[in-house]
Amino acid sequence: MSEYFNVADIFGENVFSDKVMQERLPKKIYKELRKTIDEGKELSPMVAEVVAEAMKEWAIEKGATHYTHWFQPLTGVTAEKHDSFITPTRPDGTILMEFSGKELIKGEPDASSFPSGGLRATFEARGYTAWDCTSPAFVRKDACGALLCIPTAFCSYTGEALDLKTPLLRSMQAVDRQAVRLLRLFGNTTAHKVVPCVGAEQEYFIVDAAKFRQRKDLIYTGRTLFGAMPPKGQEMDDHYFGTIRQRIAAFMRQVNEELWKMGVSAKTQHNEVAPAQHELAPIYEHANVAVDHNQIIMQTLKRVAHYHGLKCILHEKPFAGVNGSGKHNNWSLVTDTGINMLDPGKTPHENLQFIVVLACILKAVDEHADILRESAADPGNDQRLGADEAPPAIISVFLGEQLQDVVTQLVSTGNATSSIHGELLKTGVDTLPDFMKDATDRNRTSPFAFTGNKFEFRMVGSGDSIASANIVLNTITAEAFADACDRLEQAEDFNREVHDLIKEYLTAHQRIIFNGNGYSEEWVKEAQRRGLPNLHSMVEAIPSLTTEKTIRMYERFGVFSETELRSREEIKYENYSKIINIEARTMIDMAGKQIIPAVIRYTKELADTVVAVRGAGCEASVQSEMLERCSKLLVESRDALENLKEAEGKGTAMAEGREKALFFHDSVVPAMEGLRKPVDELEQIVDKEIWPMPSYGDLIFEV
Ligand code: ADP
Ligand code: MG
352-367, pLDDT tens digit by residue? Predict the structure, then answer.
């Protein structure tokens, strides 16, 4: 890491950016490539050949020895296979460095070991990666050396998507087309493209690597499966926005530097609510680039932590009792002429186009709340959503005072004649400036909140890709726009039809709006009264992927075929069972091989002490009571361990699918909780010297 530097000098230095392309490609080739990037024109082999050569030369100058098609299979993380540029040696024993257009455009990793959910059985194992030229190639530097990473989509031999990128790109295309249609209706003739823009705020935990390595649960599952709360948790709120400790600061500094070099616009960093928890947010960008960059951020956090003797934990709930981590997905729709369709302007009630967009999004979210919730489902998030630290599992929309007022006017009278404005905020201190308040306060408990000129979807898990959430947002919005356009394009009296449509949509879907406290018990009841789905867990959410309504929508916009959806459903059940199974086996291992033996040693020590103390003619009631309590908890732990072993065994024997996932959810998870309880009690009374692993206190307060 260099001493001090000017960010502008290093930003994007390892990116094959537009600037680099302009400098290095012949004008004609550059123009052709831009057409592919901007207008989706097919890339010719000749253009690819020239681009590949330029990319190779550039990467080699950066020190790259290998290239990889960097893709996002359905494992939730990225995959890569490195190939060096070298070709077979020449007669004189030297080598050439080569990279062809074919190698740039298409790769062929063996698809057979990636999740395909049945697609593999019906089709061939062959899979292809295809260059996504809308997300720039970049050079990543790590212990492997320098690697040219080419963002790609991953498909099966017959064209089914085997990744998250392909459907994301399809969904972006869908919303683009429908949004442009809508713009035309409102007289906009200059915009030719609408792109969903996304900024994802990433939360994470940092712990000491040496301590991390002493806990098998962290190693195997990324979260703690046992652990009693230390005397202090997050109740003092002294970590949130607190001074960043020097060891963490050095880590953050290197993370920023590496991200900037790779063209990721790391913008904000701060301590989060829980001790040892932090956040990093980049500046928003096109959804597919934002998805790639979020993966780069997660990888970089993990890699750089390693250099500092630290471990970055991306799990949604690594520690019970303190907040878990999520990812806020900020989303808006921006035209190629720079207009944000989600910007209400100063007087939203007069902005008819904005109100139609808003009404469409409310309709979309209300009609497809189930798949939006599903998009954030993973086993880790099951422990967060609805636990008073993250949004509930119920989807609702927060509009805030200003828009709520406009909606209320429209629903009651069909017309909106005014907009509430922010007032002057008086600080009461002469030397401080008074400033204008926002028209709307923040709301931190809503899963889908309007925040000025964007929606913030707050459910995504910290370790998850943001692709799924954006696929849903783009497609449901495309559908609502398409329905509205179908109607408005036929209208004889456009203005009247617009007013009718707005009133109708808002009236029919206002049940999805909720501006109150999403963490409250009353909201759960109220939501039930309104008939909103409350899908508590991942296994409850998965079926929404293949309802008739979902299939119809995705097929209509060519985002997913029914076969692709069914395969994804299958993969999700399998994933759920596998993750819980690993957690259960890890608990069995830790309890059986570490915790119970340690407690047995401790009880022996206590028993010996009781005998010795009594032998000395002294009172030994403290020791004997402690022995009694430990022995009792030891019995409880043993019984719970046996119970968990039995449940895990039964679950493992079942065939993959929904039944198995349900069994893990309904029987194995409670058995895990059953084992955790006596063990956590034991941790609080057993001598710390004897306890076989670092405590929560050691992990989160002593980084
Ligand atoms: P917070 O939600 O903590 O107040 P910000 O308002 O700064 O934070 O924004 C959080 C994220 O939202 C950032 O990644 C930011 O770039 C992104 N963002 C801001 N405006 C938009 C927009 N119009 N569309 C999408 N994302 C946006
Ligand atoms: Mg935010």
Answer: 999 999 999 999 999 9
More confident residue, 540 or 423: 540
557 CA → ligand 1 middle, Å: 28
Closest listed residue to residue 623, CA positions, set 561, 685, 670: 685
* Nearest partner of 503 among 417, 419, 415, judged by Cα: 415
User: What is the rounded CA–CA span in Å between residue 300 and residue 117?
Assistant: 30
Query: Would you say residue 692 has pLDDT above 60?
Result: yes
Task: Kindly tell me if the per-residue pLDDT of 575 is higher than 80.
Answer: yes
CATH number assigned to the domain with residue range 171-225+238-421+447-560, chosen from the 4 options 3.30.590.10, 3.90.770.10, 3.10.20.880, 3.40.50.1110: 3.30.590.10
Ligand whose nearest atom lies closest to the CA of 470: 1
pLDDT by residue (tens digit) across 49-61? Answer: 999 999 999 999 9
Both tokens assigned to 420 = 């509430």
* Most informative mutation of 283, 284, 339, 466 for ligand 1 (most atoms within 8 A of CB): 284
- If you measure from the C-alpha of residue 400 to the centroid of ligand 2, how many angstroms do you get, rounded to a whole number? 15
Under the banding of pLDDT at 50, 70 and 90, the label for residue 427 is low
Question: How far lies 369's CA from each of 109, 472, 505, 532, in Å?
Answer: 36, 10, 16, 8
| Whole-number pLDDT of residue 236 | 79
**Mean pLDDT (whole number) for 314-335:** 96
- At 457, the amino acid letter reads F
**Residue 123, pLDDT above cutoff 60:** no
- Among the bound ligands, the one closest to the CA of 284: 1
User: What is the C-alpha separation between 488 and 676, in angstroms, rounded?
Assistant: 58
pLDDT by residue (tens digit) across 589-628?
Answer: 999 999 999 999 999 999 999 999 999 999 999 999 999 9
Ligand 1, from 330, 442, 450, 455: best to mutate by most atoms within 8 Å of Cβ? Answer: 330
Q: Does pLDDT of 136 surpass 60?
A: yes
How far, in Å, CA of 249 to CA of 207, rounded?
A: 13
**What's the pTM value of the predicted model, to 2 decimals?**
0.95
Ligand 1 site, CB within 6 A: 197-199, 201, 281-284, 330-332, 340, 453-454
- Ligand 1 atom 13 nearest Cα: 199
The mean per-residue pLDDT over the stretch 199-223 comes to 98
Show me where the domains of the chain are located.
7-163, 171-225+238-421+447-560, 575-701
pLDDT at 1: 54
The residues placing their C-beta within 5 Å of ligand 2, an ion, are: 328
Atom of ligand 1 nearest to the CA of 284: 16
DSSP 623-675: HHHHHHHHHHHHHHHHHHHHHHHHHHHHHHHSPSSHHHHHHIIIIIHHHHHHH
User: Mind listing the pLDDT tens digit for each residue in 435-469?
Assistant: 666 767 778 899 999 999 999 999 999 999 999 99
8: left (phi over 0), alpha (psi -120 to 50) or beta: alpha
Distance 465 CA to ligand 2 centre (A): 17
Helix (H) / strand (E) element for 448: namely strand 448-450
For the chain, what is the mean pLDDT?
93
According to CATH, the superfamily of the domain at 7-163 is Glutamine synthetase, N-terminal domain (3.10.20.70)
Task: Please give the CATH topology (third level) of the domain spanning 575-701.
Answer: Four Helix Bundle (Hemerythrin (Met), subunit A) (1.20.120)
The Å distance, Cα 267 to ligand 1 centre, comes to 10
Q: How far is CA 655 from CA 182, 500, 651, in A?
A: 48, 52, 9
CA distances from 619 to 211, 369, 622, 625, 627 (A): 39, 65, 8, 12, 14
Q: Which residues pair with 326 in a beta bridge?
A: 461
Q: What is the band of 157 on the pLDDT scale with cuts at 50, 70, 90? A: confident
